Amino acid sequence: MSDRSVTRLVGVYDADGGLFGEAAYVWGKLRGTRHCALCDITHGRVRRRPEWDRMVADLGMPVDLLHLDEMPPDVRQAVAACGAPAVLARTAAGLRPLVFGAELDALEGSVTRLGDLLRARLAADQA
pTM for this one? Predict the structure, then answer.
């Protein structure tokens, strides 16, 4: 396995977790002052989308989902460089951005389109 081989993915929401963080995000979304493209992809109105879970299972690679207040130091450092939301690739050499926020926005909440993009980026890494 090379230092560039991706061992897992880390999705980082542009929102805090926990009861208060989730409530603040929902309130901001309702008011039009908050938006997280990764949240829109992974979650419906109330809970995580079943199609997200199926896509991750088909991907065959672990995917960790973290809120801003849940990031370990290495993820915090990577997000400081690329912004949130993002999907990061974890390799033996560390973390690197795989999908940026603007790209997540362009997917317009589509789990299928994100899955296709992730598979394409991971395949390019193998080439």
Answer: 0.86
